[in-house]
Design goal:
By secondary structure, the chain is of the alpha/beta class. It contains three helices and nine strands.
């Protein structure tokens, strides 16, 4: 598979994003909500770089199957989310593609009373964005290719790769 973003570039960028996040929150407490399963590696690396009072929650979202370009019905499991009244929330996801997943997650978190919501994604496919979602922190803008690695999967494979690779249909 063609490597699109090498592991050392990802690590360097995660450090920069963490610095930017620290500057913005200025030691205020932040509730991080990670969107499973794709966020897992990005979230783990990012939180260990953050010198902030942080709480972490996870929600499960799934819509994408294989390399299909249109997402199926989105399932969002957020029933374990606590009351977020008055809290500053940072949503962490692997990729902003059409934006439908994050739009739903944002709406759900707003419904829990969050005072302020920001969004961090490792990757963004700008051309595919259709939902009105803006990410505050973006690792890399990438072309419209199906990518795997660093948490992203194809049929639950390849999440463990340390880099981002392009998966092309055989
Ligand atoms: P939407 O379209 O709702 O999609 O922004 C977001 C979710 O879809 C998955 N996704 C991908 N997964 N390679 C992947 O492994 C990709 O290129 C890709 N594009 C979207 C991902 O789970 C993301 O959270």
């Amino acid at each position: 598979m063609e490597i699109l973003i090498a592991a050392d570039r990802i690590h360097q960028r995660v450090v920069e994003l963490a610095e930017q996040i620290e500057r913005d929150y200025q030691s205020r407490p932040v509730m991080i909500v990670g969107v499973l399963t794709g966020c897992l590696v990005f979230l783990a690396d990012l939180i260990r770089r953050l010198d902030l009072p942080v709480r972490i929650h996870l929600v499960q979202a799934s819509s994408y199957r294989g390399t299909a370009t249109s997402a199926g019905a989105l399932q969002l499991r957020a029933d374990t989310l606590p009351d977020l009244a008055g809290r500053e929330v940072l949503i962490v996801d692997d990729i902003l593609d059409t934006g439908q997943t994050l739009a739903r997650v944002i709406e759900t978190i707003r419904g829990r009373g969050a005072a302020h919501i920001r969004v961090a994604v490792l990757l963004r496919k700008k051309e595919r964005l259709i939902a009105p979602v803006e990410a505050d922190y973006v690792g890399f803008d990438i072309p419209d290719e199906f990518v795997v690695g660093y948490g992203l999967d194809y049929n639950d494979e390849y999440r463990h790769l340390p880099h981002i690779a392009v998966l092309r249909e055989p």
